Structures are given as C-alpha cells and as structure tokens.
Amino acid sequence: MNEMKSGVIIKNGTVVTMDKHRRIIDKGIVVVEGSIITEVGSEVCIKKYPDFKVIDAENGIVLPGLINTHSHLPMIAFRGLGENGIKDRLFDLIFPLEKNMLSRELIYNATIHGAIEYAMSGITTFVDMYYHTDEMAKAIKKVGIRAVLGETIIRFPVVDAPKPYGGLDYGIDLIKKYKNDPLVVPALAPHAPYSVSKEKLLETQSLSSEYKTPILIHVSERTDEPMRLPEEYKGKSSIYYLNNIGFLKKNVHLAHAIYLDDKDIEIIKNIKCGVAHNPVANAKSGHGIARAFDMKKAGVRMGIGTDGPMSCNSLNLFETMRGVAMMQRAQYKNATLMKPIEIVEMATIGGAESLQMEDKIGSLEKGKFADIIVIETKSPNMVPCYDYYAALVFQAQPFNVVTTVINGEIVMENRKLQTFNVEDDHEIMKHIEQKIRPFAKELEARSIKYS
Amino acid sequence: MNEMKSGVIIKNGTVVTMDKHRRIIDKGIVVVEGSIITEVGSEVCIKKYPDFKVIDAENGIVLPGLINTHSHLPMIAFRGLGENGIKDRLFDLIFPLEKNMLSRELIYNATIHGAIEYAMSGITTFVDMYYHTDEMAKAIKKVGIRAVLGETIIRFPVVDAPKPYGGLDYGIDLIKKYKNDPLVVPALAPHAPYSVSKEKLLETQSLSSEYKTPILIHVSERTDEPMRLPEEYKGKSSIYYLNNIGFLKKNVHLAHAIYLDDKDIEIIKNIKCGVAHNPVANAKSGHGIARAFDMKKAGVRMGIGTDGPMSCNSLNLFETMRGVAMMQRAQYKNATLMKPIEIVEMATIGGAESLQMEDKIGSLEKGKFADIIVIETKSPNMVPCYDYYAALVFQAQPFNVVTTVINGEIVMENRKLQTFNVEDDHEIMKHIEQKIRPFAKELEARSIKYS
Question: What is the DSSP letter of A65?
C-alpha cells in the first residue's frame, strides 16, 4: 500500500497518545513510515512531510488501536446459537458443533469475518486460543490485523490434533513458521489448569521459554476449579497451583482470573503475568465479577477482552470498556471506581503490558508499530465531548471508528475496508450459516428434549 | 409527509411482530396508512397497495420501535462531565450546573439533540422527567419522536418553578396543552418518595387520576431511601409507604425499583404499576442490581431504560438489553437467566405495558400506531444471524438501525434523518458545549480541591 507515497500522516485530530505522560495533543499529527510511527507531535511539523499521504481526522480522536486480549474468534461461525437456556451449552452444543462442523476452511473463513469486524471496530491486535491456528494466521494476514495466536493444548483429541495434547506439536510448527512474522505472534495455549496435566504444563512452559513465545491459559474462571486440580492441590487456587509447580512466569497470560484471593493477586503482580479481564463475557456466562479494581490497584499488567463470540457476541471493545466500570461499580456499590483514563489504559497500553509487548504497541510513540485508529466526534452520540477518556469509555460505538491503520497499512479508511471485499465475506458467511443451521437446530432440540 | 402517496409499505424483511403470539413473519410486510398500521402479513398482499411508498428492508429485521422507559434527556448537554470521581456528583456538579446553565433554549436544543440520537438508534418512544417540559414537547414534535413527558415536582425551588412544588402547576399546564397530542403524553413526575411530601404525592395522584395521565417517580434507587421516608414510615420500603398512603395505582410508573422485597414485588404486580429497569445506569452509578428476573417471573409490567445521559452516557437501548442479561446472570451466577425473547419483550411490548399503552404501541399489529424500525443484517456484526431475538439482544448496535418510522412518519431513512438538519444540531450543541465547559471545569476543580 501507499507505494507512491513516502508514508502516511494523520492530521487535524486530538492525539490521545497513552504514552508514559498520557499526553493529549490538540491538533496533533502522527507520522508513519513503513510499519513504524516516526513522529508524534504538533501540526507545525507537517511541512516536513510534503509527499506523504494525508489522512484528515476532522477533529476526531486519534488513539492507539484497541487490544482485545482474549478471544476464540473462529467461533463467530456459531455466534447466536444456544442462547435460549441450554443447560450444558458446552457439552450439548459447542463440543458437538466443533466436532462436526470445524474444518480448515471454516476456521479460515470465520477468522476473516471476525478480523473484518475487529478492524472495523477499532481493534488492531487480538489474542486468541483456538485450533488450526495456521489457518487463522493466513486469514489475519489477509485482513491485515495483528494477533497473538495460541494453539490450544488439551488432554483430549480435538479437531486438529487427534492425539491428546497434540496441540503441542501443532503449536511448535506454528511457532517455527511465524516466529518472525510482522503481524502474527505465535503462542502456546494450554487450555486450563484442570484440563492439562502438570507434566504437559511444564513441558509447555519449557518450550515457550526456549522459543520465547507467550503462553495463553484460562485461569480461575469457575467456582469448581479448585476441586478439579490434581489430587495434591485439590481445594487450592489455580494460581497457587501453577506457581507452586513452577509454571507461572512472566510469559504467562491469564484469561478471566475471576476467583482470586489477595495472595493470588500478589503472585500475579510479582511475577508480572498478564491478565485478560473479560467483564461482559464473565457476566453473560454467569461466571461472576473479577477483582479488576483490586488488580489495577495492585499494579497487575491487565488488558480487557471480549472472550469468544459465543460468550460475548458483540465484539465491541467500547462496550467492554463500559463493562469494566459497570461490573466493578455494581459489585462494590461505588460510582467512583475505575476512572475512564484507567479503563482506556486497559484497552490500549495495559493490554500491551499484559502481553509484554509495551515496547511495540499500545501507545502512539515514536518507534512503535503504527497501530492507530481515528474516532470521529461528529455523530450525535459523540456530542458533547468534554472529556476524551470519558467519551471513549462511555459514549463511543464501533461505528465511530472511521480509519484503522495496522502495522502502517491503512486497513480501513472512511469506514471502507481496504484489504478484503466485505461482500465476498458476507456471501461466504451466509453459506456457512446455512450449512450449520440445521445441525445446530437438531442439537438444540435434542438438548431441550432431554433437559 | 408522503403527501403524494396513500401510505407506506415496508417489505422484504423478517417481521418480528412482538404480538401476543410473538409471530415472526419471513418475507413479511407492514402497511402504514396515516399514523396507523393497517396490515401486517405476508408479501403476497403487496399488490393491494400499488401506489404506496415502498421501503425495502433488504432482508433486515422489521421490529416495533424501541421504548426507553426512563430518561432525563436534556442532561445530554452535560454528558461526560464529572466522570473522574467527584465524590458528591449530584450536589457538587449537577445541581450547580442545572441552576446556572439551564434555560428554556438549552432544554429545547438539548432535547432536539437527544431525540435525534434516539431516533437514529431505534428508539421511537421515550419516558422523561425533567424541567420546562413544554420546551421538550416542542422539540420532540420537531424531530417527530413519541414521548411521555413528566414535569418534575420536588420540595425545593428548581429552574422552572421558583416555589417548592411549583412543578405541579407547570405540569397541569402541560397536561392541558398536550392532552390530545398525537406524540406527547403529558405526565406528572413527583421526584421520589423522600423529596416530595405525603400531601403533595396524594395531590399529584388525585390530579393525575382526574386528568387520566401517568405519574412518573423514582423509587427504591438507593440503600438509604427507607431512612429518608416520613417519620412514621422510617425504615419501611418505599413501596410499602407509597401503597400504604394510597398513592400507588396503575397509573404510577416506577423508575429503578432496585431494592424491593418479595412483598414489594407482589404489590407492584397486583396494582399493575409499571417499572423502568435501568441496568446500565444502576451499575455505572454504583446503585446495584435490581431484581429484574424476579419481577419478570412475577409478571410485573416492566420496560427497560437508559436513565439520563449523565447516568448512562451511551443512549443505546441495545446495550441496555445486553445489560439486563449481564447483570442478572452475574448476580445469580446463572447463564440461563433472562432469555433473549424476554429481553426484547422488555424493550418493546413490556415498555408499552409499563405505561399502560400496550393497546397503542410496542408491537406490530393492525390498529396500533406505526412506530417501526428496520435493522439491517448485512454489517459484519449481524452475521451470522441464527436467532433474531439473540441477534437483537447480543449483537445489534444502533448503527444497524437504518430506518425509523414514528407515528407513520419516516423520521430516518437509510441512516439519513428526514426531520431535522443534523448539521444544524451539531453546530448548536458545539456552541452549548463551549459555553458550559469553563463553568463545569471550575466546579470540577473546586470539588477535587475540597474533597
């Protein structure tokens, strides 16, 4: 892209940098050369770049791209199924759907679709655990979005690994292939402390350390988790267990982390593990409310996530930001908890910190990857706009995102996706929907009949 | 409007009627003549209406307009202020702002702005308590939206009533003027059980019964409410108090209703009072989680509301629908509570029932007012769409609403507002913002200094 131009310059916006000083620059510019931000400053500098492509932010907000720290994106193909009270949604619907419907092709196409929705909603990086992550990698490169992709490792056979724990080999192949990719960060994703053996957890940690990749894991999501740990740790917290066996290191990224005690928070903080806080999914799924306020106060490296599209069907990180405030304030009956600036931090630089990627993404600073979004402030819902952080957290909607730049590439401009034909995507997804619908309806009917 | 045509026909959509049988008509039509729906049926009937204006729903969802059952819309002028932890936001910020900034002109212009945002987000009726409700009435008729407007009655002087309880006279004037208006339903709005005397509550009820208008009141919103009731009822619940003095009748519409016991729910149900459930505002304001599931189960007439734009800055009833599920499921740790169809009911026919207006609005049925929205299902966030109710509750965003018809008038078509120049509104609101900003910043600074 931009072959004819030396680079891209975004002007005429309020640049909310999220840098160390949380600088906000009125009438600021962000200069992009190749995949890198080379200057963030005031509009007077603009004449230095006469032959750059200019994006006019039209008094909007220029923000680092949002980081969605937890998802299972290909499940978007099943979004909206089983929403009417199936008792065991996982066993009666999701597992059979995955077993019978997932294919390389479906995972590729569903990832395209989800990545389009992300890019059009201001999400420039997402963290994902799923299967056939090599297909996902191809898809995200096609759309041009950044992702940490973790191949799922679990004790039973799954769609891309017929042997127990086959994901480990699959993941190592992914790592070898994408180790130096500009957009994909390959990772290993042991599913949860109760679904992966101690030995395999330690093997995963050892391989991740060797290849210097992140580990993604679900932790403390359910109340029954302590009783599902290995015999000698039964009743203990998952964090205690994982730390005690030597699995927890700063490359470990913990999804959910709902049921934590003070000691757990201290361990996470000291080891510098990352946390993905998923307030909307945790609520919708009936799992409860994580201690986000306490974690933030303790200085835990924490981002926010939607979780997968069957857990938080609206892949809307603005709504997730509001969800952070709503759930903490309802829980503690205190309207002053979780200030807007703190929540925008979680959606940007905090997410980057949770991934140990704060030197690369999460703020608009010279030398970082050019992951930038422009949010218009002309639509009725963005007026008035007294306080940029409050407007981002409590007013903004995905459709206010007009331009999305990822790794220096203009992925969306003026609400038009530049990298993929959205009509093609629509047609493919409608076809997938038609194929899945009869089987899913049968599963739902069966589940209702027997429940 | 449509002077040249005999009426309007919406075709080529899935009509989610919300009628008694909850009929869903694939490839359905809705026929509008004047302000009334005259037919809801299958597309084969279309040839009966050769000279009607045709709106093509393009395979989208045709739904009754959403009903926002609680708001203070002119506060949109202050939206985004005081979001950084002012301790007493009401006394240190909101009251001084209202005292110094409110004028007839501001209330008119802010109502225009809010009504535009509503109409563009699929809200066709809203319920409001505020001041200078005659200005609000003028504004909403200009935009062409339907509203129940309650003039606030409170024990101290306010902007439009220099004497205590002056709102009562103001409200009676409003009622006389708008009694037979096609869009405005005038109402009286005693602020709360603790801020209006027993005598004035009963006077309000007697006048409302005489004029056959609704009464809007905040109830059981705060934990300290029982201790603020009149001496002989101190410690009792507000519902007990209001019922005991003979104030509660089916014309009473209760906003919030958070802290209810089983007996309170029974009383509300038996008397057929309406309830406005505001899950997002209740959470954001730290007030807690209302017993929506229990109320729904008991058969209470219940709608959903955003509350005012300082309590729920995003005036987004789709998000409020999701909020219903999130808060109940987080509270009771049960993912099967509040099914999508039940939540869509609350946003449509349930809201109408809460206002005793179920014979006029809330569903797509012959003889009802033509309040209709079309929701496109082509944007990535609406794909797939296995289940219309689940897609509406968990996927839809305001920008998916493409067409809004209110009282037979096409207020928005293809995302273009037809009744008001949105650029004029933008300019006026930016001017208001500039005027309010310095005073508000001074109040915020003072509050932070002294807190």
Answer: P
CB within 8 Å: B426 and A327: no
- pLDDT tens-digit profile of B228-277? 999 999 999 999 999 999 999 999 999 999 999 999 999 999 999 999 99
- Other C-beta atoms closer than 10 Å to the C-beta of A177 total 14
Q: How far apart are CA B429 and CA A346, in angstroms?
A: 31
Question: Is B395 near chain A, with CB under 8 Å?
Answer: yes
> Taking CB atoms and an 8 Å limit, are B80 and A386 in contact across chains?
yes
Single out the residue of A114, A116, A127 nearest to residue A305, CA to CA. A127
- Alpha-carbon gap, residue A401 to B397, rounded angstroms: 14
Give tens-digit pLDDT for B32-79. 999 999 999 999 889 999 999 999 999 999 999 999 999 999 999 999
- Which chain A residues touch B381 with a CB distance below 8 Å? 117, 121, 314-316, 398
pTM over 0.90: yes
Whether domain B8-64+367-417 has CATH 2.30.40.10: yes
Instruction: Report the top-level CATH class of B66-354.
Output: alpha beta
Secondary structure class of A88 (helix, strand, coil): coil
For B354-380, write each residue's pLDDT tens digit.
999 999 999 999 999 999 999 999 999
Domain A8-64+365-417, what architecture?
Answer: Roll (2.30)
Kindly report, as residue ranges, where domains of CATH 3.20.20.140 are found in chain A.
66-354
**Nearest alpha-carbon partner for A196 in A215, A176, A177, A178:** A215
Inform me whether the C-beta atom of residue A409 falls under 8 Å from chain B C-beta atoms: no
For residue A432, the chain B residue with the least C-alpha distance is: B384
ipTM value: 0.96
Q: In chain B, which residue's Cα lies nearest the Cα of A396?
A: B314
Residues B200, B153 contacting (CB under 8 angstroms)? yes
**Helical ranges in B272-313 per DSSP H:** 279-284, 292-298
Nearest Cα residue to A367 out of A123, A45, A17: A17
- Smallest CA-to-CA distance from B257 within B285, B217, B230, B229 is with B217
**pLDDT tens-place string over residues A167-180:** 999 999 999 999 99
